[in-house]
Amino acid sequence: MSRHLSPTADNALASQLELAFEDNRLAAQLYGDFDQNLALVEQRLKVSAIPRGNHVLLKGAASAVDQARRVLESLYGSLEEGRTVDISEVDGVIRMIQTEDSQLTLPTLERKGKVRMAQIATRKSTVVARTPAQDGYMRAMDRAELVFGVGPAGTGKTYLAVAHAASLLERGDINRIILSRPAVEAGERLGFLPGDMKEKVDPYLRPLYDALFDMMKPENVERCITSGIIEVAPLAFMRGRTLANAVVILDEAQNTTSMQMKMFLTRLGENSKMIVTGDPTQVDLPRGEKSGLVEAINLLDGVEGVHITRFNDKDVVRHALVGRIVRAYEADTAKRLAEKAIEGATR
Questions:
Q1: Distance between CA atoms of 30 and 21, rounded to whole angstroms?
Q2: Is 326 helix (H, G, I), strand (E, B) or coil?
Q3: CB 141 within 8 A of CB 157
Q4: Which one-letter DSSP state was computed for residue 268?
Q5: Which of 8-12, 81-85, 94-98 has the highest mean pLDDT?
Q6: Taking the CA of residue 112 as centre, how many other CA atoms within 13 Å lie in the half-sphere pointing to its CB?
Q7: DSSP state of 252
Q8: Treating both helix axes as pointing N-terminal to C-terminal, what angle do 197-215 and 218-227 enclose, rounded to 10 degrees?
Q9: What is the phi-psi region of residue 284: left when phi exceeds 0, alpha when psi lies from -120 to 50, beta otherwise?
Q10: Torsion (CA) 23, 27, 28, 32 in degrees, nearest 10
Q11: What does the pLDDT read at residue 197?
Q12: CA–CA distance, 239 with 267 (Å, rounded to integer)
C-alpha cells in the first residue's frame, strides 16, 4: 500500500492523500457495493473519497483525511486477514477512530495506528466491536468474573453477553449457559401463566434467544436447551443454587429488587462468569422500590474482579433515530430532575 500526501493550494488546513491498495479484488470489497462504504466515510468524516481502480483519492481537512486514511487502512487489513467488511463494520471503525485514546475504556487504539477492535467468534458468526464502550465491554468479559453492562437500549449489552457465552461454550471453557430475567410484568407469579416453565418464561427471554440463534446453528441451540446445557430460568428460581462452570446472564437487571440482586450475585460458583445487563433509567418496579442494579453498581464499583461498562446514546448501534430518541428522553429526564431540585429548594 502506498500513499502520497500534499497540501491543497487554496487551503493550508486542507490536504489530499492518495492511497493505493495492492489487491484490486480486495479494493473492490473495501469500497462496497456501489461504493457505499466510501460514501459512509465521506458522510461521517466530511471528506471526499474518489476511487480510481485500486487507488482512492482523499480530500478534506487534514485531520479528517488522516482519519479517513486510518479507517480505510484498518478495513483493508481486515480484508487481508480474510474477514468480510460490511457497512456496520465501517461504521464501527469510524466510531473507534473518532474517539480519542484517553476516552477508551481499555487501551485498544494506537494513535495514528491500526484499529484493533475486540471480537467474539463462534462457528457461525463473528461479532466485532462497533464503539469504544463495546470494545471495553467485550474485553472485560474475557478478564473479569462479574461484568455489568449498563446503558440505553440498542447499545449491544445483551447481544454481546450472549455472544460471549456462546463462544465460551463452543470452545469448551464452560459447560452451561444460564439465561435469566426478572419477570416483572408477571410479578414473578409465573404459576398463573399457561404452559410449562419454558413456555411461561419464553416471552421474557426472547431477546436472549434471538442472540443465541445469531451465534449458533438453530439445531444446536435447540439441542442444548433440550439437554439443559442452555438453561432458561426466571430469577426467582435461582435461590439456593450454586452456578459453577457456566456463564450466567441476568438481563433487564434494573427490574431486580435489592434482595433479588444480592441473591443472584451470590450464586457465582467455580469457573463461572456473571454478566448483568440493564438500563437504570427504565425501572419498572413499583414506586418506592429500589433497583437492585442501581444499588449493585454503586456498591461494587472498584471491587476486584468486577467491571462496570457504562454505555450512552453515542453507543447506540441500531437505527440512527434510536440514538436521537434516547437523547430526547435523557434531556427530558434531566429537565424534570432540575425542576424538582428547584422546587425542593424553594420550599
A1: 10
A2: helix
A3: no
A4: B
A5: 81-85
A6: 1
A7: S
A8: 140
A9: alpha
A10: 150
A11: 54
A12: 8
